[in-house]
Amino acid sequence: MAANYLQSLDWRQDPYIVNNIITFYTKGRALDLLAGFYDACAQVEIDEYQNYEKALGALTEAYKCLTKAKMRSPEEQERKLSEMQNKLTLVKRFIQARRSYSVDKQEAIRQCELLLEEPDLESAVRFGDVYAVLVEHYTQQGDFQKAYRCLEEMRSKMPSVNLTFYVSQSTVEAVYRALSIPLTHKPASEHVRHNSVDDSEEVEEAPDIDFDG
């Protein structure tokens, strides 16, 4: 319940909210709850802004809080620490894959493909964001068959999601056109283009939030 409430706050547009929450939980020595807040912040960074770098900062703070928390159940604390460590690892791997694309495209793509094999990937990194890197890459390389295969895998894993939420409409249309496959339903335009392999930066301007307290 608390996590849902925190995610509904417009905290990113008002850093004052963040500072108040951090101060409140810190003074109350409720570090496990503060960890939950940072975890919710990370999820918003990913879902709303596609900013994995800031999400990593928030998750790092969450992990620090959990290590210092005095929870009633040591077992529960260890479980949460393990889950948080796994999230951190997956997010770091995705960030590294995107950053390395300009230096070593093949290795970056290999890392993205390995990420898709991770059973808990969706707990930290969205399938669509990883597939977007692959689709854009194969389209740029002129390998439309592989690009199409990735689009179909995306569709099967996320049947209720519009593909153009992750991949630009022009790219989707280019792939279908190259393979002479009719678009059975025209992709609707999205107001934000996500995760181009040429642009892993944040796509919307928003105030910086300092996750270092």
Written account of the structure:
By secondary structure, the chain is an all-alpha fold. It has 2 domains: 2-100; 126-178, no CATH class. 62% of the residues lie in helices and 0% in strands. The chain is built from 9 helices and no strands. It has helices spanning 2-8, 15-27, 31-49, 52-68, 74-100, 105-115, 127-140, 144-157, 169-178. Helix 7 (127-140) packs antiparallel against helix 8. The longest helix has 27 residues, at 74-100. The protein starts with a helix and ends in a 35-residue tail after the last helix.
Key phrases:
2 domains; mainly alpha; 0% strand; 9 helices; 213 residues; elongated
Summarize the structure.
By secondary structure, the chain is mainly α. Helix content is 62%, strand content 0%. It has two domains: 99 residues; 53 residues, no CATH class.
